[in-house]
Known about the structure:
With about 450 residues, this protein is α/β, with parallel strands linked by helices. The protein has helices spanning about 10-30, 30-40, 85, 95-105, 115-130, 140-155, 200-205, 215-225, 250-260, 280-285, 310-320, 330-345, 350-370, 395-400, 405-415, 440-455, and strands spanning about 60-65, 70, 75-80, 135, 160-165, 210, 230-235, 265-270, 290-295, 305-310, 375-380, 385-390, 420, 430.
Amino acid sequence: MPTDAAPSRIDPQRMADLTAREEREFLAKRQTSRRLWQEATTAMPRGVPSSFQDTPPQPVFIDRGKGSHVWDVDGNEYVDFHNGFGVMVVGHAHPAVVAAVNERMARGSHFAQPVAEDASVAEELARRFSLPQWRYTNSGTESTLDAVRLARGFTGRERLVKIEASYHGHHDSLLVSVEPPRDLMGPVESPNSVRYCEGIPQASVDLVTVVPFNDLQALERAFAAHDDIAAVVVEPVMMNIGIVLPDDGYLAGARDIAHRHGALLIFDEVKTGVTISAGGATERFGTVPDLICLAKAIGGGLPCGAIGGREDVMAVITDGRVAQMGTFNGNPLTIAAAHATLFDVLTPAAYSHFDALAEELQGGLDRVISDFELPFHVLTLAARGCVTYRQDRVRNYRDYLDIDKAVPYLSWLYQSNRGVLMAPGAEENWTLSVQHNEADARRYVDNFREFARDLVGS
């Protein structure tokens, strides 16, 4: 039976034929990548540093990047809409970041001692995100790991509530119900807690209660069922399944429910932080949580992370009740890159530029979808955006499951074969940089128009 994800005017056989054609072209253009990948399997499982990098039909090995473009080892040039899973909002080799890192490198790259710029970066994060106290980490995983520990230490409780399908890094405490299989996810009103992979202790899974996004009643039920909840952990905009916006009042409601029951609200802004506004989702939607987790875009391309919190919550670090540490926390190279990113690159003019590019993409893609009568829709938030391959808005993971992932995969192949690098996956989620321009946006739209035309056979 046809659904929103696979309308009757899209012929499955045509889609399969197009996919086979595009895969052949993809592989033919990337033979050096294939050779390097196959050789790498002798020293690295699956031939890649991270399992996220091993995606069909094969990984693409990148040689270099400059501005809004990257080149792979086969010499193929792309406009980079992937941008390192949302990291490179500064673009590649931005002069301000390069100068700051080179200058710092010449004076020494690591001491495991504080440097002068630590405080100024923390003060800027406090200004942007409206939380007064900050500590550094080295990744989004470390940020959410530390936030969970802080919440547990502050409240004296151990249980976590997380949103079904959100990804919060690869530590045991939250690697639960990340896009769980249909046969394991349980009823919508009370989702199961499903471990992501082998190696995660069942005891960790048992301490996680899962609720749907945008469902305050489910959150109320979770608190009614458990009196040991330390924190609610939420992506204020879900970005593991495309872009899923919070309902009006949802974020403030989640904070109120958590506080009424003596728990904390943690925002995972690893993907939204400094990308959808200067102060991320916290600024854009006007709800300040108790703890914020950052990484990715704040570091200008270097490994980075930060956690911010209320003074009373962060005091558990000050008085020694909770350990927050790391040899590379506040690494001078990372801090130099972050300082340049926050003060020199991601200025008010940068966000005006993102909004202009988002308008170009939104308008162009909306026209294509209208012209070809496709049951898709587009969401843009400054530097972030996506095509959602569903007629109606996605409010949670169960809505997302309506999407036939073969359609966005074919779109990804079209973009790749026509000079736009996208993050792989059904979510079709892009990240722009300050070095992207209107021509870059138009290339994406033009490629999407060709995909839409071929998809419906016009």
